[in-house]
Request: fold
Amino acid sequence: MQSDQKKPLPGGGPAAARPIRSVPADKNDVSTKPGAQKFLQLAEKNEALQEVQNSILSAISNLIECRNNIADNHVERIERFLALLMNEMLRRGVYRDVLGTWDIKLFLQSARLHDVGKIGVRDSILMKDGPLTQEEFAEMKKHTTFGEMIIEKIQRHARESVFLTHAKIIAGTHHERWDGSGYPRGIAGSSIPLQGRLMAIVDVYDALTSERPYKRAFPPDRAVQIIKTGSGIQFDPALIDSFTGASEWFHK
Reply:
């Protein structure tokens, strides 16, 4: 007579009685490494600090727009146009050696301060509904050097340098012209930093396509034609093809 006792399962006993093997920790999992918790907390603090910086930048930009009688997201559009233009430049290989050394995110954020110097310009000029007189325009042009001075004061008390360096260059050079007839210093051609040459194109394009109390907005295709006409006169000719290609996406 056969025994009713159950035969042991292969492996030495019922499955429920088997010891459970522990899964070895993933060596690439940062949470298992010493100091991981501290690292993650620091990353969260840095992210929170970045959000605060972005909020401050947005507040300053909005303040400038309000004083300039503009409330139509000019700064946000400028940042978007620059991103699209630079993507097109990289695709075409235009100034790739320079752009490849930039932190693009920091550059785009710094562009928000391109008109920060307008804080030093009188309200009667900034908010004027009509064309400026010669004397008023002479004061308006000072916003470029005012911007440089404001950012220089911040640099003296800040450890960060890349963001503020971009911001200062943009503020001081975005009204220079390729032929040397711009302001504040009348520098020409490739002597104008690339940051200023990029901002010059998108800033003029946005001004052309935006309605103001003293003018109507140009249609985008007309504004593109005006920019192309300024190639080699007001704008860097090496940027025009990239601008034309990128402009197809500006309003999509």
